[in-house]
Specification:
about 5% strand; 17 helices; three-stranded antiparallel sheet; mainly alpha; two-stranded antiparallel sheet; globular; 5 strands; about 425 residues
């Protein structure tokens, strides 16, 4: 593998792409530490030292911003508005026929959907920046902090902060697209990878610095290695459904007669179900923070829903992951559409008649595979958190096992792209 890295940097155009990608990722990290105008940066650092990370929903946004949210930097929102906009546009394909028609139009339709995603990203950035600034201004971002992080609460200052954070989100979106066009890998995925990976050293170091730090650190490293191995094994696994294309005459030429397969991943939904589940479970805790802290319902929500160690929270978390796995897979993979396309081009699954029987067979295969994939996803998402609870460690690896899924998945995809470019130049590549 080291020799493959050396060959990649010896190839001029590939080296240029790799250095460009690294430079954009470095700019993204630098922007995470530049404070937004109107923020008292020394007070922010003091509040971070005095308090915890706030509620789970803000902790989720803080994860995808690489810690920039709690710094109240110009990149405080991170890539989260774009992720939310992309998910919303995908879900709207089921509701709005126009979006589904654009999806089927090919490159031109995808371009329009991408443009809609950008507009929605900016709108969500305005909404989220307003929420974050209001939360910080009211003292809910750093509960119990003795100093004010936004001393000036005038309308002009608030408007300037909203514009700055929204512009920061737009800049992040542009940087991600630059990586996709001129660098290596998917730009948005690599920026998420950068944000999450940047949070790992601090979290692991804090575990090592606590009680029984050395033992807990070794156990946590072992768990992470096991989860990484499980993620690599499952993410690389796929169910290959064989497809045979019949021979047909077009003019004087014979076409078809080839054999191929439909690759179906065990975890087709990726990490989206975990994000949905965590976001929904964090909402009750966020609402409870605005209520009377001595009220019975606030105490019940804080004890049973907002606490990640509560049995009810864990059960609901698992059930939501299972539900969203099936829901998101049903949106992204349509057996009827795949069966119609196969029939149109003369393809069929051996032993299965074309048309409706093929769609029913694909639906049966998808249901079985998604059942295993959803259990795997719930296990990976919960395992690090359960280990931390068992060790009695309050510090949490950012967003549990889902962060490991994202880091490993993006890493594998990027290595595959570098490998394919090396193979185009007649090199052996990373994967042998």
């Amino acid at each position: 593998m080291l020799s493959a890295f050396a060959r990649a940097f010896r190839t001029p155009d590939l080296r240029r792409k790799l250095l460009f990608t690294i430079a954009i990722m470095a700019i993204f990290r630098v922007g995470s530490f530049i404070p937004t105008p109107g923020v008292d940066y020394p007070n922010v650092q003091q509040c971070i030292a005095e308090t915890a990370d706030g509620n789970d929903l803000l902790g989720l946004v803080n994860l995808f911003s690489g810690g920039a949210l709690l710094q109240l930097s110009i990149f405080a929102l991170g890539i989260m508005p774009y992720i939310t906009a992309s998910i919303i546009v995908q879900l709207l394909r089921v509701v709005i026929p126009r979006f589904e028609a654009l999806h089927k139009e090919g490159q031109s339709g995808q371009g329009k959907l991408t443009q809609y995603t950008r507009y929605l990203t900016i709108a969500l950035a305005i909404l989220q920046s307003t929420t974050v600034i209001t939360t910080a201004r009211n003292g809910l971002l750093f509960q119990g902090c003795s100093v004010d992080v936004i001393p000036d609460g005038s309308f002009v200052t608030m408007a300037l902060m909203v514009i700055t954070m929204t512009a920061g989100t737009g800049l992040i979106m542009w940087l991600g697209e630059l990586i996709t066009e001129r660098g290596v890998g998917n730009g948005m995925s690599l920026l998420i990878f950068t944000s999450i990976a940047a949070s790992f050293p601090t979290a692991l170091w804090s575990i090592a610095g606590g009680a029984n730090g050395a033992t807990n650190f070794i156990i946590m490293i072992a768990v992470i290695v096991v989860v990484i191995g499980l993620v690599v094994f499952v993410e690389q696994s796929q169910r290959r459904v064989p497809v045979q294309y019949a021979k047909r005459m077009v003019g004087r030429r014979m076409y078809g007669g080839s054999s191929t397969y439909i690759p179906i991943k065990i975890n087709m939904a990726g990490v989206i179900p975990v994000i949905f589940a965590a976001s929904l479970l964090a909402v009750p805790g966020l609402i409870a923070q605005f209520g009377d802290q001595s009220a019975d319902w606030v105490v019940w929500v804080s004890t049973n829903l907002a606490d990640p160690a509560a049995p009810l929270h864990i059960v609901l978390y698992v059930l939501m992951i299972l539900f969203f796995c099936f829901f998101y897979t049903s949106i992204t993979f349509n057996p009827d559409e795949v069966a119609d396309n196969m029939k149109k081009y003369g393809g069929f699954i051996p032993g299965i008649r074309a048309g409706r029987p093929t769609a029913e067979y694909l639906d049966y295969v998808i249901t079985r595979i998604t059942s295993a994939g959803s259990i795997y996803l719930a296990l990976v998402a919960l395992l690090p958190t359960l280990v931390l609870i068992g060790l009695g460690v309050s510090t949490n690896i950012p967003f549990g096992g889902s962060s490991i899924i994202i880091v490993v998945g993006v890493g594998l995809e990027t290595v595959k792209q570098i490998n394919s470019q090396l193979q185009q130049r007649h090199y052996e590549g990373f994967l042998r």
